[in-house]
């Protein structure tokens, strides 16, 4: 080997250098065998030098391979035998792993698939059972509601007051049905029986119950004055029956008022109840205004008209007293309140808050007074006998209106306010007469 490297023309140090660059090496060969100013350059000499170096490398490789052939062959055989032994061990381990995986798949995988099917079946059975119970509950409540609605619609002669007493239980049944549909609306919506109950029974019953309750509130009267005529006072039994019917109707409207999602008892507003009571007050106010306007134009009818107006005010006073005694019932769709100071204690409070007034009789007389001045001025502007008669009977009208307000406040818990309301009312009617 020493002789070969000394006799070799191959510059091994240059080729083995870490900084060897083929382009620099080729450039140096060309510059060694050519003059830089020659044109064209002679490239055959440097090219033959490189080819010679390649042949020298090939010859050297052949020489080293031939000299060390036994050791190379022996090393290759050892490596091959070692690889075969490693391969045999690996194949045995792979075979064991495959067998373990197959056994695991049989013992776990198949059992898991079977268990998954059982779980799926059990889950669907539970859902079906729950849906069946919900449908059963809906159907039972539907039958119960149907019987209650028959009782509500029964004529008073069959069982006196039974219809009014059945309105509140029917309302609670409707709320239970509403809760059932809210909890499982998606599932129940695909069940024909529940859909039939909702469409053919729940919706018409709720509409009819609200209409019946609103009618009871609209017809509330303890003085015998209804649509305009006057009749005798009701007996004690009749008055108590009227109060009981009105209380049931108002509780029904309270319960059936729309409830917003995630609403609390503190934020709940009984809109149906407030609207029915406001409509009652507005009807009494409108009728009284029209009647008093006609009576001022024809004074002979004034006394009778003022009697009717005071009777309406007495009804409003009785309504206020009744509202103050009715406590809001527990609402099935609303969570109980944590504090008793934030909820209404009776049905009167939300109505007064909505009307922004301190009492219903005060609201009645103030509302009338606010519109009577214009009515009186209209009579005076028309002139004629009506205007002259009204001016000449100014004192009589003043005393009659004051007495009317006094009669209307009889039975009110706050009778001390009647003089103030009477002064406002007298001023609105008699005030324009002195101008």
From TrEMBL:
GO terms for biological process: intra-Golgi vesicle-mediated transport. Keywords: Golgi apparatus, Membrane. Residues 237-404 form the Conserved oligomeric Golgi complex subunit 5 helical domain. InterPro entries: Cog5, COG5_helical, COG5_N. It holds the Pfam family COG5_N. Residues 14-145 form the Conserved oligomeric Golgi complex subunit 5 N-terminal domain. GO terms for cellular component: Golgi membrane; Golgi transport complex. It is found in: Golgi apparatus membrane. It is a peripheral membrane protein. The keyword Membrane applies. Its main location: Golgi. PANTHER family: CONSERVED OLIGOMERIC GOLGI COMPLEX COMPONENT 5 (PTHR13228), CONSERVED OLIGOMERIC GOLGI COMPLEX SUBUNIT 5 (PTHR13228:SF3). This is Conserved oligomeric Golgi complex subunit 5. It comes from Zasmidium cellare ATCC 36951. The lineage of its organism: Eukaryota, Fungi, Dikarya, Ascomycota, Pezizomycotina.
